[in-house]
Amino acid sequence: MTLEILTPDKTIYNGEVTSVTVPGTMGFFEVLKDHAPIISTLEKGKVTIRGGHKVEEVVHIIGGVVEVQNNRIIVLAEGVEEIS
User: Fold this and answer.
1) 2-15 pLDDT, tens per residue?
2) How far is CA 29 from the centre of its chain?
3) Which of 5, 15, 18, 59 has a CB 3.0–4.6 Å from the CB of 75, allowing a cystine?
4) Per the structure, how many domains does the chain have?
């Protein structure tokens, strides 16, 4: 499954993943292989990217939209927060 996280300025992430958890408007939800097609709004929060059995990366977004179709996930984020 492929994941792209895009902001108006740049591509934040582009690669293969096994699952992604996103902050939906009604709560967090996870996308796995062969997920049904969906478009959903996103709130400010963490996008957790997993490859294999480990957490690969966490990106803090400032809201946006996610589209899932044919094992391709596209997150259009309004922006990202730098967490130190």
Assistant:
1) 999 999 999 999 99
2) 10
3) 5
4) 1
